Amino acid sequence: LGVTIVYAAGDANAGKPIFVQLCASCHGADGNPPAAMAALKIPVFAKGERFEKTDIQLGTTIKIGVPNTAMVPNPNFSDKQIDDLLAFIRTLRK
């Protein structure tokens, strides 16, 4: 039995400016984290790292952050902003 993962119907174009403003400094504008961030083991979105997770899982990570890591919480994002952000992040896979 296969598992079907359903992704949110976000708008990647609307998510791009959110990513550029708030995420690219760590995750890299193209999904490749800057070399200075290597020690933090930040996911490489250009390689599709973490893309096996559902949008609900990733959205939760964005909202609450990851304790003891550089991933800070973003509790003020609306569900729409998270959907848009995730839609954009998924376009970074090369």
Index terms:
single chain; 4 helices; 94 residues; mainly alpha
Would you write up a description of this structure?
The protein is an all-alpha fold. 40% of the residues lie in helices and 0% in strands. It contains four helices and no strands. Helix 1 (12-22) crosses helix 4 (79-91) and helix 3 crosses helix 4 (79-91). It is globular and about 30 Å long. The N and C termini lie far apart (28 Å). The mean pLDDT is 89.
Layout: helices, strands, pairs:
Elements: H1 12-22, H2 24-27, H3 55-64, H4 79-91
Helix pairs in contact: 1-4, 3-4
In short:
By secondary structure, the protein is mainly alpha-helical. The chain is built from four helices and no strands.
> What is the strand tally?
0
Number of helices: 4
Low-pLDDT segments? none
DSSP strand (E) fraction?
A: under 5%
